[in-house]
Amino acid sequence: MKKKILFNAFDMNTAVHQSQGLWRHPNDRSGEYKSIKYWQNLARKLEEGMFDGLFLADVTGIYDVYGSNADAALRNAVQVPSNDPFLIVPPMADVTKHLGFGITGSLTYEPPYTFARKMSTLDHLTNGRVGWNIVTGYLNSAAKAAGATSQTGHDTRYEIAEEYMEIMYKLWEGCWEDDAVERNRETGIYVNPSKVHPVEHDGTYFRLNGIHLSEPSPQRTPVLYQAGASSKGQTFAGRHAECVFASSPTKKVLTSTVKKLRAATQEQGRSGDSIAIFGMMTLIVGGTDAQAQEKLAEYRKYASHEGALTLMSGWSGIDFSSCDPNEPVKHIKNDSMQTAIDRFTISDPNRVWTVGEVAEHIAVGGSGPLIVGSAETVANELQQWVEETASMDSILLMLLRRTPSTTS
Amino acid sequence: MKKKILFNAFDMNTAVHQSQGLWRHPNDRSGEYKSIKYWQNLARKLEEGMFDGLFLADVTGIYDVYGSNADAALRNAVQVPSNDPFLIVPPMADVTKHLGFGITGSLTYEPPYTFARKMSTLDHLTNGRVGWNIVTGYLNSAAKAAGATSQTGHDTRYEIAEEYMEIMYKLWEGCWEDDAVERNRETGIYVNPSKVHPVEHDGTYFRLNGIHLSEPSPQRTPVLYQAGASSKGQTFAGRHAECVFASSPTKKVLTSTVKKLRAATQEQGRSGDSIAIFGMMTLIVGGTDAQAQEKLAEYRKYASHEGALTLMSGWSGIDFSSCDPNEPVKHIKNDSMQTAIDRFTISDPNRVWTVGEVAEHIAVGGSGPLIVGSAETVANELQQWVEETASMDSILLMLLRRTPSTTS
């Protein structure tokens, strides 16, 4: 029995997302991320390629753990400079018909009332093709930029997130009845006031008293994404998410993550299948397996290990700037982060990864698996991932988009 | 000596902006405000008509003073439902080349750090065609929606705004040097860290420590608009604004406003001419003067006095729901509001406006003057406004856009 696989592309409104150093490739066009045309071309290509969605990451801070400053992040353009992800979606929606858009939005930096309107507006403009990746922020630098001395504790962030979501549902689902907008030229009634119900919320972290500003959009609540890998994150996903990212370097680790997520969903009284789990991976496709390997070798020539270690440091909270590349990477106990490094070190007890090897992998494949080969090889491998992880039903493709073949 | 007149169109991402009731016109298309194509058609038309800019108002609250509830605002769709103004700008920029975009953004509801990036992103995407109308919020309902019991005091709001602007300039102008982005494929240096200077701000209302996330955009600081008519507002405009709105029903009142604004600008050490002052007005043009008057009469058949009074109540803070239409409108002493009604009552000491007359005018002309006639009549009248107000050099045209002739 073949499962239908959903495909999301993974990108960010920035010069260098995850593939560190590849902007140096002679045909690279990463500098065009500031233009509307760049994103429209990408969206058109994805739609032609029958992708289900484009997922846009966002980080409102700097990766300044490496070397305890922002120098390496800047030198390698590690997700900085970066621009707002929401603003590129309407022009992409304008040139596509069925492509979905998942946008990362941190609920730490925008009040619920205006954020709810922003998402509703996008849902109107895209005609119901928008999703929201709910994040609570994980970089200290982002918290400092917003005026805090450090970020709010991990558990508190999820408590805040729960209350934020409660308000979102009230605004999106509970405020305007389906037929509240009458727009009747005869009676002169545009909106029937008896079908609009003000939201009153008096909680621990938020107070709100008002009418949602937007009329009901095609989806009302956008598709909800979640990526938190911690137990709190999984509970949150079980309650709210329709799509979850689970980046794991091996099928075994992914299978275990998938099981936990299905269980967390069932604990919240939902069917385990109500979540689509996206395993993150990078594909490099060539005419033959050998040609694909050559392509990989060519890409690796441009890889920046410093950039990769800067990412790793930001993800793990550990400064890798003083590490020897031949040093083995240790398993990091840190529930509050998406510890990409954890995933390497626990994936295969028989293999000891060195700092340099992880850096080399991340620079081209990010923190997920890298699949290299002919179209047939890659397709077979994808099928195996889907079958062997039992319940994984979706794939998130990391884009090495800055190179000429934008989706390979 | 002829002055060059700048033209801005005035609109809002909502069903009914100011022209109350005109959505009932048989050819009206106000319901399409939720679509990308609607805004692109408007932008194209404005560019063809050689407009300098499109100015987008925004209100993050409900006009609930009239009758002490939101019923009349909803019934007449008085600026509700409304959507986010920022998200319609990129698709409009995509189909135009020189049209500018002035967007209303309240600094009360978004932290400086992410707001600065949002504006920089728009400046990149529009290739330097974006402006920001700085507002501090004036509806109690908006403050309540954001969790306050009522809005912050007027003077405090301007203190907060001053500090907010200080941070904006630091992020936009002081953080990235012009040549910080090297993007050198040979050296592997994308950004030169020594040319990026973290912003440290420890003020009364905000703390911030971080690097502006966006690289320098074409304008860096967007064109700054301001509309506050109070003395605090004029001081603020004198310090920051490049464009100011001054809606006044007579040339005499506008002349006085213009003088005050020029003086406020000079007090801040800037040339009085460094501000472009936009007088708000509505034009109705016909083949002949008589035909234009017929058009006005036709529009007035659809005008909603209840909608107009709902606007007036929101602007003035006075509930007009119990007023007799024949009652004279009294001069309202309220420095903290843009008292549209003030402008009527003080404009001509010899005329006593009734509540009904003001409502009738506002429903088609908003709070500015209404100029009706053939193209020649209207052009002459515009020229007189410019010459007789001495220093007024710009005109903001209210769009009766929902009717077939979108810019008439």
Structural overview:
The structure is a homodimer. Chain A has one domain: TIM Barrel, CATH 3.20.20.30. Helices cover about 35% and strands about 15% of the residues of chain A. Chain A has 13 helices and 13 strands. An eight-stranded parallel β-barrel of chain A has the order 1-2-3-4-9-10-11-13, surrounded by six helices. In chain A, strands 5-6 form a two-stranded antiparallel sheet. Chain A has a two-stranded antiparallel ribbon with strand order 7-8. In chain A, helix 4 crosses helix 6 (about 155-175), helix 6 packs parallel to helix 7 (about 230-240) and helix 7 (about 230-240) packs across helix 8 (about 250-265). Chain A is globular and about 75 Å long. Residues about 335-340 and about 400-408 of chain A have low confidence and may be disordered. At the A-B interface, helix 2, helix 3, helix 4, helix 5 and strand 6 of A face helix 2, helix 3, helix 4, helix 5 and strand 6 of B.
